[in-house]
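JOB MANIFEST
job_type = single_chain_structure
chain_count = 1
residues = 405
[input]
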Amino acid sequence: MGSLGLRPIDTMTKIGQKNSTVVVIEQEQEQEPASPATRLFHTKTLNCHIIAILGCTTKINRDVIKKGLESTLINHPRFSSVPVVDEKKGVRKWMKTTINVEEHIVCPNLDPDMDSPDEFLENYTSNLTTIPLDLTKPLWEDTETPMKGGAGVEHSPKRLVHVTISLDDMKIVKNALSMTINDVVMGMAQAGFSRYLNRRYGKKNGKGSSKTNNLPKNIRLRGSIVFNIRPSTGIKALAEMMEKKSKAKWGNKIGYVLTRIPISLPDNPLDYIRQAKTIIDRKKLSLESRFSFSTAKLTQDIFGSKVAAKVTRRVLSSTTVLISNVVGPQEEITFFGHKLAYVAPTTFGLPYAVTIHFQSYCNKMTISMSVDPEVIPDPYQLLDDLQDSLQMFKEVVTKQDTIGV
C-alpha cells in the first residue's frame, strides 16, 4: 500500500516580487490565535490526532465529494488555515492559506471483490497511526493490568476497530432503570472491562474458564472520561457558526475527569450500572471537567503549551483507559449526497493502550476503539465483552418486567 502518511499542505504562494509585501500583510491580518486545545494537541508531548471513519450506504462519488468540500469546508476557518508559530512571541496561530482540495482526496485502487473489506479498512486506517512521532518517552507509573500500556505507548502504532450495536437495546435498559444512556454506557464499560480482564488473568494463571473469578484481589483501574464543556452543544450549521456574534464559537472546549472503574464480577449484573451511575453523578457535581479545562488553559497562558502538555500528559498517564460518549444526529444524514451508515470517531497519540468512543447515530451506537496490539492483541474480544454486557443487562431487565407482569 505504500506510505499512508498525511499529506502536507502547500502554503507557498506563487507571487511576483512587486506584490509580495501586500500578500504578507493580508496573511498577517487573517491570523487568529489558536485555541487552548489546539495548542496542546500540537505539542510534541501530546501530539494528539483525531480520526473519523464515515461509512456510506452507497459507492462514494469522488467528484461529488470534491465539489461538496470546495463549496463548504473550504469556507471553514479551521479547514482553510494552517497552524503557525510567531517565533518572536512564541504564540501559535491559525493563518489563512490556499487549499488544493485535490491533494486531500486519496482514492486507493481497491479490488471490489476482496475477501475481507472490513479487515482491509481496519489495516488502512490503522496505518494512519504509524506517522513518525517524537520518541521522547517519559517514565510511566500507576497499577499494572493487562490493559495498561507501558512507557511510550502513545508512540506505538494503533489498531482501529469498531462495532455497531442497537441504541434501542440501550434505551430498553435505561428506561427500565430510570437512568440515562450515559449511565448504561459506563455500566457497559465497567462490565466489559471486568469480563475481559477476568479472561486475561485466567489465561495468564492457567485457570479454568471465564466464568471462574480469576481477578486478583484489590485490583484497581482508573479511567479518564472526556466531556464537552462548550456552552453551545450539538451540530451547528456552518453559516450559523460563521455569523458575527454567533454563540456557536470556534475551537474545542474539552474537559476530563479521572475516575475509578471498579473491576468485579457481581451476582447482579445491574450492579455495574448502578455503581457507575453513583460514581459519574458525583463527578458531575464536582465540576472536575471544567476545572481540568481551566487549569490547562491557565497553565498554558502562564507557562506555555509545552509545559501545559507535559502536565496534562502526566495526569492522563496515571489512568489506564480513555472513554468518551458523544450524542450524534437522531436522523439519517448525508455526506455530500452519500447517506451515512455509521460514524466511528477515534483518536491516537495519547498515553493509552486503549481508548474507547461511543457514538450514537439514529437508532445505532457505534463503539470504536484505538488499541495498542502489543497490549490488546484481541481487540474484537474486548468489543464482544462490551456487546455481551449490554445483552446481559437487557436480559435481566426484560426478565424482571416479565416477572412483574
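[summary]
The mean pLDDT is 77.
The longest strand covers residues 338-348.
exit_status = 0
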